[in-house]
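call fold(seq) -> tokens
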Amino acid sequence: MSSHYLRYESQLYAIEGDEVVIGRSSDNDIKTVNNRSVSRHHAKLIKEK
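ret:
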């Protein structure tokens, strides 16, 4: 099994599982602190099989 990574704002995030949610809300997998141009639940990355 190969690892996948996402680089966002100079940080590298390991993508684990079948989906990752990005946004300002604290319940997201990747949180975008202090970025008002991003919605609370901005994007969902879903792994295709």
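Strands lie at 4-8, 11-15, 19-23, 30-31, 43-46.
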